Amino acid sequence: MCMDADAAKIAALRSGQVPFFEPGLTDMVSRGVESGALQFTSDAGAAVAHGHVQFIAVGTPPDENGAADLQHVLSVADSIGSHMEASKVVVVKSTVPVGTCEKVAERLRSALAARGSGHAFEVVSNPEFLKEGAAIADFQKPDRIIVGANGEHAREVMAELYQTFNRNHDRIMYMDVRSAEMTKYAANAMLATKISFINEMANLAERLGADIEAVRRGIGSDPRIGYHFIYPGLGFGGSCFPKDVQALVRTAREVGYEAEMIKAVEAVNDRQKRRMFARIAGHFGGEPNLRGKTFALWGLSFKPNTDDMREAPSRVLLEQLHAAGATVRAFDPVALDETLRLYGERPDLVLCRDKYSVLDGADALVICTEWQQFRAPDFEEMKTRLNSPLIFDGRNLYTPQRLRDDGWTYYSIGRAPAFPRPQAIEQQR
Ligand SMILES: NC(=O)c1ccc[n+]([C@@H]2O[C@H](COP(=O)([O-])OP(=O)(O)OC[C@H]3O[C@@H](n4cnc5c(N)ncnc54)[C@H](O)[C@@H]3O)[C@@H](O)[C@H]2O)c1
Fold it and tell me: Which among 234, 235, 125 has a CA at the least distance from the CA of 182?
């Protein structure tokens, strides 16, 4: 039984509509609802009565200082404490700062005390590591299941609960609650660091006349580094990395530690999200010349296979182009409705349902998300639609020399000669 405070969401889910795009999820939810195995409610009492195990999976957005806002997590704790009529295992699945499970326990204790109730509970930290776009596979075949539990009963309950997804080999790692909470932040901070690191290398490669794609393959072949998460691009976005990196910096500060490296990861990312606009403005001879120009955007979601646009780099670019007086024509395979919801109808934003018609009359194409269908497009068709053969590729999808041989002006990330070589290097040659 899934409970959400948003009654409209619950109504939609009951009729089999999933309120966001996630491959395979709509079918799975429909099957669950039809068979009766899956129920949705906005009645907290019913949800608490339903299960011995209560998962808290509500949002933990940043507060005004960048720390994780725990109000939703704690209000669910209040609600469990005020409704429970039997012992419970309360599992915190939301990404929460170290020490939150203890706060949840305190709230449960005081809600129970207020009712004069003596029901027992245990609080478990069980952070979620699934990736949007591959959520079902990641959930069903997890690399690891982190269980932070101090009591034996809670560990046994979690082992039983996960046994279906834990058959091939034991993926459960038991640890103390605080370590489990920290593992999630450490994992996200590490992944975000890899992205900011490769973007920093890409920015250097441009200035040094090197090709970041060659460098990427060169370093990725080292198993200590690996190929994952070292793709240069427009910076990381989404609902997790930006907020979790920020929250970790805040948590560190609260215990008297300045997390210099994590702060740099965030700063490099913020700068990276703005670099594409600078490059476009540079091409056109300065920002004032962008007024009245039209840009076609391919990809709006923060990554492929999702319609999630939270903190998406496309939004930073889109807003900069708008502020400069340009018109944006945009195409995304699944995120157009979300774009409309975020920006509304406006004359300088034209949403197109086709990747070629979006190019009609545009002065350049800008690629923001690496959807599969952008990897091998019909370049001849594209030329007939664009005002001039000009691509700004934020995801390094194409081979620069091939495009240039075909008459395109092609900018990408970290691949010379996007920027003129510094004089010192020219002279050495
Ligand atoms: N999205 C991901 O891929 C992902 C991956 C790993 C971890 N997480 C973590 O999971 C948590 C949730 O993320 P999300 O992306 O699903 O957030 P979300 O904001 O999309 O969804 C949160 C839901 O909680 C509901 N809610 C808020 N307060 C409530 C209450 N008191 N009672 C019942 N429902 C309530 C909201 O209506 C909303 O539907 C976050 O802590 C996030 O960091 C998310």
Answer: 125
